[in-house]
Amino acid sequence: MFRRDSRALDGLFEEDGGAAGERHDPNVQMAGNLYKKATSGRPSWKRRLVVIKDGFLMYYPAARETASDGAVCADAAGTGGVVLTRFDFHPKGLLPLDGTTVERVDDGPTRHLRNSFAISHASFGGRALVLCAESPEARDKWMHQIEACRFITFENAVAGSQQIDKLKKQQGQARVRAANLEADASSRGDELRVALDELEALKAAAGKALLHCRALRQELESRQGAGLTQGKAPA
């Protein structure tokens, strides 16, 4: 997997560049800002947005609590308490978590900030990815999540993603059917309203015709009455 690629492995411990490009993805297990230790050359710490998703750990440039468009990125403490809604699609580093080990280490960017944990694997060549949280509680939550994800294989992640895609497709089809039914009902409703309007118009026309017939009948009866009166012989 990725850890067997020396270039990808070096990217975990060094500070390489990452192509930008925002993408929505709410399907993350945990996300937040942590301090990452670079072990190549002089040890240094840089703040990074760390994301755990489908058995992978990825990190990006540090996220502010609110993006430029107002979308929440992650909680600053890195506890995963805020849902991640936006992050760069291309990470600065990516690590499969299956088969890794995680343990606490007494290290950190400052003398008073030493809530660190190290992620290691036999293929790392003795190196470890060291991350530091803002608090012991946040560190323990990260370690617990990594432990839970160590058994998520790439194949399971792919199968899960395919199942999600299938469900999303079915959901989309259901929405289309619902929209069609709604449109059909709306169309039928329009037809019914037109028919009712025509019926009301016919009723009104029939009423007018009835009144006209009554007027003609009255006029006829009046003329007939006048004719009978004029036709009588004098006594």
TrEMBL record:
Gene Ontology CC annotations of this record: cytosol; early endosome; recycling endosome; trans-Golgi network
PANTHER family: PLECKSTRIN HOMOLOGY DOMAIN-CONTAINING FAMILY A MEMBER 3, SESQUIPEDALIAN
Gene3D superfamilies per the UniProt record, alphabetical: Pleckstrin-homology domain (PH domain)/Phosphotyrosine-binding domain (PTB) (2.30.29.30)
GO aspect biological process, one term: endosome organization
UniProt source species: Cafeteria roenbergensis (Marine flagellate)
SMART domains: PH (SM00233)
Protein name in the entry: PH domain-containing protein
Keyword Phosphoprotein: yes
Record keywords: Phosphoprotein
A Pfam family: PH
Limits of the PH domain: 27-151
